[in-house]
Amino acid sequence: MVTVALVGLGDIGLGAHLPALLRSAEVRLVAVADPVASHRDAASALVDGVVAVGSSLDDALATGPDGVVLATPPWATPELAIAALRAGRFVLAEKPVATSVAAAAVYDALTAAERARLQIGLTYRHDPAIRRLESWIGDGVLGGPLLVRAHIYDERRDPADGEHLDRIRGTLAHGMPVVHEGAHVFDWLAHLLGPGGLSVDDAWALRTDADLPAPNLTGARLSHPAGHRVLAEFGWLTDALPRCELTFLGPRGLATLDGATFDLRLETAAGEQTVVFPGERGPRCFDLQVARFAALVRGDTVAPDPDLDAGLAALAVAERVATRAMDGVTA
Known about the structure:
This protein has helices at 11-23, 37-47, 57-61, 77-86, 112-115, 128-138, 162-172, 177-193, 281-298, 308-327, and strands at 2-7, 27-33, 52-54, 67-70, 90-94, 118-121, 147-153, 199-206, 217-223, 229-235, 245-249, 253-258, 264-268, 271-275. The chain is of the alpha/beta class. It folds into 2 domains: 2-124 and 283-306, Rossmann fold; 127-279 and 315-327, 2-Layer Sandwich (Dihydrodipicolinate Reductase, domain 2), CATH 3.30.360.10. β1, α1 (11-23) and β2 form a beta-alpha-beta unit. α6 (128-138) packs across α8 (177-193) and α8 (177-193) packs across α10. The longest helix is centred in the last third of the chain and has 20 residues, at 308-327.
């Protein structure tokens, strides 16, 4: 059985990675670590004393895991990922891989063997809904070219939840929502639309509250060499949020991906169908991700999926959107 340590015990660590690791029959959790005492206390209650609890990556590595899961913020991830890889471990690193393309340049120092042990946590790529969409697009069910609309709204502001507001404001200080949320969306689109990459035609940003450290709403128009067009919006920290969904409209049909459940709806001249996959989207995707990471560590697969190149490509598109958006924003 693969042994794994989890470093980073914030919301995504405690709420998604830790439960998936504990559910898995393919891995054994041997350590958790976080520099924040309250995070360690919360994790200790969940692991019930059966794993080591530490404050740093070094503490986690001291337990001798085969792999390390980094559920850390993007400003901390590069240094930790490189340290764990150079210690000979496999690494599953949360997206985005860094806060900027410049900050991600440190990954250039990795050897080919080290890169081959680094899987990127573009978690929702693993969902069967993405695979079904890929088949609909690839088989021409929708026709083409496609108009893709991505409305990614998350992190609703709750005035009564000061801790959440402070945490998301802190994340916003390291980049607009597109930098953090765009990693998933642009990875899906690269996977679904095929080779060639997305070009940013134009972009915009809006700060709905003057005291926010960066604009909290962002949007862009993008184009793909195959003729597809993408309209993308990302937003945080408003008291109410629009529906989160992606639509793929072609001459032969319309596919809609529910952003919360990943239920799919297909409308064509032949009629309508809805595809609902078993279980909840989050646990389903994190369980599939753990299984893929375990296969990489065991050597059942020869390359990480998604790999560092995929993480860097998604970050680059998100950064281009953020840069174009800020061109038209005054302080």
